[in-house]
Design brief:
Blueprint: E1 2-7, E2 10-13, E3 18-26, E4 33-39, E5 46-52, E6 58-60, E7 68-73, E8 78-83, E9 92-99, E10 116-117, E11 121-126
Parallel strand pairs: 2-11
Antiparallel strand pairs: 1-3, 3-8, 4-5, 4-9, 5-6, 7-8, 9-10, 9-11
Length: 127
């Protein structure tokens, strides 16, 4: 089992920044890919960013490219999402997800690819 706990959400004005954290615990050695998704009210959960724990490239949704950065600290079993130039349309609950499939091909855009999920952290951007 893997447990994921997100933190760092909050209310900021448009143009501001937030840094989300996702701390993993349990059988963290089984994690191969970690990602961030988000879900706005009345909308489906959508992919935001992903990376492999072992290294390699990072992957982003077009809507966040150039504004968001995903990174990892394997020693701390933590993944981060640095969000800059935030827009009101970024308002959503942000979820951290982990994929334990060792043969996972990147990018992992579908939420169905991920086995473990955090409880989510609310991000609200005011205009």
């Amino acid at each position: 089992q893997v447990q994921l706990v997100e933190s760092g959400g909050g209310l900021v004005q448009a143009g501001g920044s937030l840094r989300l954290s996702c701390a993993a615990s349990g059988r963290t050695f089984s994690i191969h890919v970690m990602a961030w998704f988000r879900q706005a009210p009345g909308k489906e959960r959508e992919f935001v960013a992903a990376l492999r724990r072992s290294g390699g490239g990072t992957y982003y949704a077009d809507s966040v490219k150039g504004r968001f950065t995903i990174s990892r600290d394997n020693a701390e079993n933590t993944v981060y999402l640095q969000m800059n130039s935030l827009k009101p349309e970024d308002t959503a609950i942000f979820y951290c997800a982990a994929d334990i499939n060792p043969g996972a091909l990147m990018p992992r855009l579908s939420s169905r690819s991920y086995t473990y999920w955090g409880q989510g952290t609310q991000v609200t951007i005011s205009s």
